[in-house]
Prior knowledge:
Low-confidence stretches of chain B: none
CATH superfamily of the largest domain in chain A: P-loop containing nucleotide triphosphate hydrolases
Number of domains of chain B: 1
Number of helices of chain A: 9
Strand content of chain A: 25-35%
Number of helices of chain B: 12
Order of helices and strands of chain B: EHHHHHHHHHHHH
Largest sheet of chain A: 7 strands, mixed
Largest interface: A-B, 35 and 30 residues
Oligomer: heterodimer
CATH architecture of the largest domain in chain A: 3-Layer(aba) Sandwich
Amino acid sequence: MTPAVSLRGVSKKYRISGGRSSRLSEVLSFGKVKRSHEFWALQDVNLDVEPGTTLGIIGRNGAGKSTLLSIISGVLQPTTGEVEVRGRLTAIFGLGTGFNPLFTGRENAMLSGLILGIERDEMLERFDDIEEFAELGEFMDQPIKTYSSGMRSRLGFAVAINVQPDVLVLDEALSAGDSAFKRKAIQRMYDLRESGTTVLFVSHSMGMVTRFCTDALLLHKGRVLTSGSPEEVADRYQEMVAKSEENKSAGMSERDRQLDYEIEHEEEEDTPTAGDVPTAGRTTNTRWVVGGAEILGLELLDEAGRPVDKLPSGGRLTVRVRLRYDEATEDSILGITLRSEKAGLEVFSTDTAREGTPLGRKYAGEQTTVDFTFVVPLGPGAYNVDASLADPHADGSDVARTQNAATFEITQEGTITPVKGLVQLPAEVEIYGLEGLQKRPGRPA
Amino acid sequence: MTTYTFKGKKSFAGEFLDGLATFYRRRWLLKYFVQRQVTRSYKRSYLGLAWTILSPLIWVFFLTLVFSEVVGIRFRVVESDPTLNFGLFLYCGLLPFMAFSEALNKGMNSIRSNSGLVQKVVFPVELLPFTNAVASLIDKLFGIGALVIIVFVLEHRLHWQVLLLPLIMVVQLLFTLGLTYMMAVIGTYVPDMGEVIRPFIRGTFFITPILWPPERLPENLRWIEDYNPLAYLVEAYRGMILEGTLPGGLATLYFSLFSLALFAAGFGLFVRLKHGFADQL
């Protein structure tokens, strides 16, 4: 098949100048004085994207991801090389580009569509779809200046995604709107993919890439490091990140890691996990996440309420989960799961229903904090904690879920006899000898 | 199915024609852009579009007050109200000049002030300076309308020559476009040049017979008027709106040819360099 997008030896050079005065001296000397230095944002990129592919482009900040997308969509010209795109391309780099605050949503939607290169007649035809998708109601005829930023991006996204492009280029545009809208947007992206649209997108969320993409590409310092199946590429990326952070992360506290988690996984809870997508051991949980609430954070606290990432075996641990309901929910169940990294299995799991503390009725927008406190008589090693919110009325699916939200380590410090095995169960030992019964109490767990 | 390819550099003629075709292909976008530009300043106001007529009236009133009454210059006498003469004369000359200077000043920033569009979407940048030039002319069209009404009310007559003014304005559009495209390129690549050019644009006000009647020009300085395309426009406007005379045929021909060449040069420069705009922002 002819590729929908093909790049041959594409490179992009930028000049980094040392400031205004050095640029001036360069201009005045007609290029004889070179004060600036060259910087290759992309170097010799070759790429063929088959029609219908969903390609996730990953890489660290400054790896050239956005430059690559800009070149593919024709916003930037490559310094050398050739780009070929077959079919209609729609690129979304920032939502609501070109919106005018004084014009109504309707006018801006039209304007935005025209900017994206869609014929006016086609826009008129699709207007109902766009209006329905954006869910703005009466606001559609209000000036955009009265909109919240979420509403604005919703409108922008609705226009861009409802125009049936052959090639859709997204630069982290999916963080628009609340989780309900995000779900709909992702659903629409699945539909587009089904209908044969080639999707290219940049994401920092590995979960998003592995779940949504059919292919992935890892860029590093302007070069294609590897490409192939999303799982392999994501692994390679994480390996790369881990390596480069090894040195500096030695002193990184659990709090930082939790922050990292919240940043990186920001959009994941809302992503529907396609049940049939092979997750290759990446997630043990393959239930659908339907959305409706968001797990805002998961913290591990010690007895004094301080954040903790290390504790001795037998210590008391509090898992604090912060939730926000986006939809009114009745009888939701919040559960936590403790997983041993070493053993790779679930050690302990409980939920609010089991513990007899129902969450009750929650209205949309309500925030709740739930503390689970328990003793951890566990063997030394690292443990993961995750939380999931289930709705008993929606069978078989979670409302929200975290993935590797927090880890803590059981240390041997302060314990005379370290726990062997996975867990120290409260045990009683009775010894029968010739002198009769000797009874010793088991160590308190 | 449209196919977009970028393979090396296109031929110059191809790009030029492509750029021209864009105006037709994206005509609706162009319409919205122009509409937006024209109505932008009135959107917030309570009187809305009424301002397009009201603001010229205020202008005429103000100019009359300052120059006829305070300064006491009277070149052209309005029979029914001798105090009003200079206001009309001056405003009529100001219209083509304002169209010119507004288009150029806005055109200079047209790429930078729309950096979002240039960097974030595949946008036909040709439309941006075009919008500025067309919008400033349309804005003056309202001014002309208001002026014609004032002339009719005060002098009780209309000149049929006014009806030919749109033809002159088409040529004026080419003239303005040529310069606006050049300004857009300069303003994007060499922002400092903007500061140099701005005083020159302002300066043309004084070497154009707007404030002074061309008859006052000494013989040895006549060339200022002869070689100034703006002077041609000012006199054409005045003749057609106030006096009922048509501009000279030869002068019109020269101006038309000059405008056409200017447009070709400006637009050519623009399409040649437009691919680098996104990198400059």
